[in-house]
Amino acid sequence: DWTPAAFVHETVERIKTQVGDKRVVMALSGGVDSTVAAELIHKAIGKNLFCIFVDNGLLRKDEYETVLESYKHMGLNVKGINAKDLFYGKLAGVSDPEQKRKIIGGLFIDVFQQEATHLTDISFLGQGTIYPDVIESVSVNGPSVTIKSHHNVGGLPEKMNMQLVEPLRFLFKDEVRRVGREIGISDIFLGRHPFPGPGLAIRILGAITPEKVHMLQEADNVYIEGLKEAGLYDKVWQAGTILLPVQSVGVMGDERTYEFTVALRAVTSVDGMTADWAHLPYEFLAKMSNDIINKVKGINRVVYDISSKPPATIEWE
Ligand code: XMP
User: Where does ATP bind (predicted)?
Assistant: First the structure.
């Protein structure tokens, strides 16, 4: 029978045998998978694990600072890299979703590789790959259609000539969470909604500007904090806000406004492959609409996405 305790024990032993006294480098994302994988590797080899956490400027509000601090508290040997301007620069004027993903994935690899070359004697690359990633990267990028290129860190191992350490490769998400709980990882990580690698870039329809990122971070923050306060955060699989590339007329006091629209998205799902729109209470949606329009400059209209997957996807890009 599979138990988290036995899995942790066996996995730590296996990593010790695989890595020995060599060094491992690993990129952290702030998500459940990379965090649990890093902590397992850390348990096995301690200070021989070197972690890198990149700020691509497309994370949620205050996420970079908060998560970096938590990693340090966990005793992980982590280096934070502020690469915001690099990402904003290369994304300027780009509105095609797949192009955005390509640029972000490529830059991520560049930044990571550059940091990794400063480290000497690295023989292994740690990754938080889980079983659905293994299946999806086969089917999603199959020969006939590319639906969405889920970037993560694909392509790195070949480029860097390193062996992989992937402790979660045969686990499903719920098992990863159970393992995380077993090794004492905080609920800040374990209960977190999935968040796409390209981050807010694929929730800003059209071209990205730092101002739009800021606007969306503020709106997203109101929504996510609102969900938590209302006890709804843990009832949905994933939630977020999308900044639409349209402006519309509104009225604020006796001023006519012409500002942007934000769409709220919340879905229930088991694995993200199919999803239903979450039937959030009208009162809650009304409060979110008021709060966002009152607090976030540049937004005068809020809509709720009532599409399920399929035929829609969870993200809008
Ligand atoms: P979709 O939009 O395809 O999303 O229904 C399914 C799940 O995958 C996440 N997602 C991504 N994750 N890189 C990622 O790491 C990506 O390019 C990407 N696109 C979508 C999405 O947030 C949802 O959890």
Answer: 29-35
Highest-pLDDT range among 85-94, 106-115, 183-192: 85-94
Q: Does the CB atom of residue 151 touch ligand 1 within 6 A?
A: yes
**What are the φ and ψ backbone dihedral angles of 76, each rounded to 5 degrees?**
-75, 145
Q: Please state, rounded to an integer, the average pLDDT across all residues of the chain.
A: 92
Specify the fold of 4-190.
Answer: Rossmann fold (3.40.50)
- The pTM score is 0.90
Pocket test for ligand 1, best of 148, 149, 205, 277 (most atoms within 8 A of CB): 148
198 lines ligand 1 (CB under 6 A): yes
Top-level class of domain 209-304: alpha beta
C-beta separation of 97 from 317 below 8 A = yes
Is residue 152 lining ligand 1, measured as CB closer than 6 Å? yes
Cα–Cα dist 168/176, whole Å: 7
Mean pLDDT in residue range 195-213:
97
Cα(199) to centroid of ligand 1, in Å?
9
Res 149: pLDDT = 46
pLDDT tens per residue, range 261-276: 999 999 999 988 999 9
The first and second tokens of residue 88, run together, are 């904003």
Distance CA 163, CA 167 (A): 13
CA distance linking residue 3 with residue 87, whole number of Å: 41
Distance CA 143, CA 274 (A): 22
Residue range(s) of every CATH 3.40.50.620 domain in the chain:
4-190
| 150-193 pLDDT per residue, tens | 445 455 656 677 899 999 999 998 999 999 999 999 998 999 99
Q: Using an 8 Å Cβ cutoff, are 151 and 111 in contact? A: no
Domain with CATH 3.30.300.10 in the chain: 209-304
User: Closest by alpha carbon to 276, among 248, 238, 249?
Assistant: 238
